């Protein structure tokens, strides 16, 4: 009796296997039918419309970026690129030497301001100016601090030369403040030694601010950033809208498809 009962159980379980398999097959076929169901034309039109809008607004942003990059580069040429190149050409000594102001003249009017140690604005003529003359010796400033000398015993390498705030002698607030510059180096500090930088190419040029790293960094950034943004923007727009670029890309793809690779 036990054997017959077990046989009936096995037979019943075996008979249930085809039904389970059929249900699994029907479930798989329903999933395939769902995935393989073609999209409706309305859905495709909506997607195409969204892509067109995205392309339009992206193109607008890229065009604006290209135009702004051109204007930014033109703006940076006189204010950053040209002064940085002039500073590199002047070849200033990176280690400060010892200077001393010997004369300070404050002038007003174009006739009295033929040159200026500091000028706020590099594109307009100065109507008020501070003219500072200095003597400098090539004794490093650190050595002077460690071992001060008597000023009357110093043999100055260059005497009565112009002192400039930077290589161009001008700039824009807040980096350049001529009033503070005059207070720091002017009348009340005549005869006091201070650190300065002289030009090895033009020994008569002396400035109070100089950093090789900052000068090179500003030059590289002002050259790379606008040009890279312009190139990327124009490249993408040309690929999208220039028929010649599209044909060239298609020819390249056809050529690659016709000829098999070495591995094949």
Automatic annotation (TrEMBL):
The keyword Transferase does not apply. The chain crosses the membrane at residues 56-81, 219-241. Signal peptide: none annotated. One of its GO terms (biological process) is regulation of sodium ion transport. Coiled coil: none annotated. PANTHER family: IP20336P, TIPE PROTEIN TEMPERATURE-INDUCED PARALYTIC E. This is Protein tipE. The lineage of its organism: Eukaryota, Metazoa, Ecdysozoa, Arthropoda, Hexapoda.
């Amino acid at each position: 009796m036990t054997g017959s009962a077990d046989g009936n159980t096995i037979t019943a379980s075996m008979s249930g296997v085809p039904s389970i398999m059929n249900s699994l097959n029907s479930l798989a076929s329903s999933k395939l039918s769902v995935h393989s169901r073609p999209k409706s034309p309305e859905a495709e039109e909506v997607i195409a419309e969204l892509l067109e809008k995205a392309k339009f607004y992206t193109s607008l942003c890229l065009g604006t970026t290209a135009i702004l990059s051109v204007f930014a580069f033109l703006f940076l040429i006189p204010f950053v690129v040209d002064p940085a190149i002039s500073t590199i050409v002047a070849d200033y000594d990176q280690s400060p030497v010892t200077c001393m102001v010997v004369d300070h003249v404050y002038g007003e009017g174009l006739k009295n301001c033929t040159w200026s140690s500091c000028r706020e604005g590099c594109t307009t003529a100065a109507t008020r100016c501070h003219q500072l003359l200095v003597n400098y010796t090539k004794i490093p400033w650190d050595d002077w601090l460690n071992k001060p000398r008597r000023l009357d015993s110093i043999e100055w390498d260059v005497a009565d030369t112009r002192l400039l705030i930077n290589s161009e002698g001008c700039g824009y607030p807040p980096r350049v403040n001529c009033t503070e510059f005059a207070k720091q180096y002017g009348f009340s500090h005549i005869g006091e030694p201070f650190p300065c930088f002289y030009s090895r190419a033009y020994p008569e040029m002396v400035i109070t601010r100089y950093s090789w790293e900052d000068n090179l960094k500003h030059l590289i950034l002002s050259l790379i950033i606008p040009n890279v943004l312009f190139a990327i923007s124009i490249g993408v727009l040309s690929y999208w809208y220039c028929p010649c670029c599209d044909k060239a890309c298609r020819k390249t793809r056809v050529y690659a498809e016709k000829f098999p690779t070495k591995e094949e």
